[in-house]
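Notebook entry, structure prediction.
Reason for the run: the old model in the group folder had no record of what sequence produced it. Starting over properly, with the input documented here first.
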Amino acid sequence: MLVMERKPWLESYPKTVPGEVAVDRYSSLVALFEEAFRAHAQRDATECMGERMSFRTLDSLSSDFGAWLQSQGFAKGTRVALMMPNLPQYCVALVGVLRTGLTVVNVNPLYTARELEHQLVDSGAECLVVLENFASVAEEVIARTSVRRVVLVSMGDLLGFWKGQAINFAVRHLKKMVPEFEFRATDGLEVVRFNMAIALGAARHLQRVEVGPDDIAFLQYTGGTTGISKGAMLLHRNVVANILQVEAWFNPMLGKVGTRQLTIVCALPLYHIFALTVCFLMGCRMGSLNILIPNPRDLPGLVKTLSRHKVNMFPAVNTLYNALANDTDFARLDFSELWVSNGGGMAVQQATAQRWKELTGCPIVEGYGLSETSPVATSNRLDIDGFTGTIGLPVPNTDISIRDDDGREVDAGDSGEICIRGPQVMAGYWRRPDETAKVMTEDGFFRSGDIGVMDERGYVRIVDRKKDMILVSGFNVYPTEIEQVVSTLEGVLECAAVGIPDAKSGEAVKLFVVRKESSLAEDDVAGFCARNLTAYKRPKYIEFRDELPKSNVGKILRRELRQAQA
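New structure, fully documented this time:
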């Protein structure tokens, strides 16, 4: 019998986690929001730079913003691009867009003009909500897009709406930020300030729109690591399902919370699907307080913010965990109520996991997902003691099948492509049926492009991305394995391995290392690799760097390192 048919992972579940949850409990995210607003009206939904916004206020302001959108004549399904870091304005705009039956297009605010133009043109977005700090990039390309309304956001927007007073938030907290930006309106393009849109909407009434499970909630663009960036169509039912799947997985931890409010650190960007679902959307469902961090790369500022809270949940990627675990001020914080550290976005390295556990007493629970799966597909149990080296078990309502190049499921313990089926899997790529056909199987599985193995208990371990595999004299070498080993060497802060052309072996391994200790030498790294890796896996070249290229989420970009060697 095939592994997937046996579903061995169900026997490995905690007793309080069901194999199936009622993922059709809500007809849409709008229904989920409205129930949450009623249930948690008295609680605070967000805190950003010391200022809080309640669920009642989020309900009211998002309704006002939605009413303004309706006044602009946008038809149901129109795409609205949001280009902001983690701010309460983002939360208000996102909920307002969804409540009016429109589709959110999340945009990285650090995009170049070329990247932004592609996403706006490809999505056909007709409205752009952008923080003024990044609006100059948008102004370069806006004439070549379908955008006809621009909403300019300032850092200090909204404060007066819930404090009842005018405070220059930007000056008080962010004196180094860029001055107020004036976006030039042109024929066919109107520009309005965010606060003005809220005020105009407040004078109207939000007209109820029927939003159903098959309406598109998000166009979540992939990172473009395997080609041109594509918009994954996440339907309302996809995202609702994943919220409820993750919540069910958190059942063992929720017993600790009881009726108390859960405090979540939202340091990962909300325009990224990991933080969007696990922090904000699930946070709304559970009535949690999200501590919004606009700039997690400002470690002193992040640590100062964390010092004011006893946080319960801290989702992050390996690079952020690693940076904090090596920060002396962070080490002095109170971690007594840190119950869950969720690792995702990239492989969690053993050395980082061990340092984090020693420092905080809370193990990193590694999971796995993609933009195309809303995102969570697997997770380790929350009651683990430490680093497992796996991405855990398929979450409720989810099937994982490990398949060879011919689409046949392999035996337990054999490697193959990780294929995912469940209610959280996207409807396809926006206007790209050819690309959709490449990743969807006839029996409804999404082909992730990641190589993994599943053991007899149902635990999945990632070997690597297909494209990142290095072929040395006919032997497959997986960068993650090399990086996991080297990261345990004392004196190594970060590392990345890539394949480069080699006349003798076809490809050779090149290792890039960021030192934690300046005394670390090339011979130290080479000797350590010789002791821990078989000959063909050992790096032929070692290069020390001050830093490694990363995405805005903190994921190390191997492709940039490879391209630099070409």
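Summary: Confidence is low (pLDDT under 50) at residues 163-178.
The old model has been moved to the deprecated folder.
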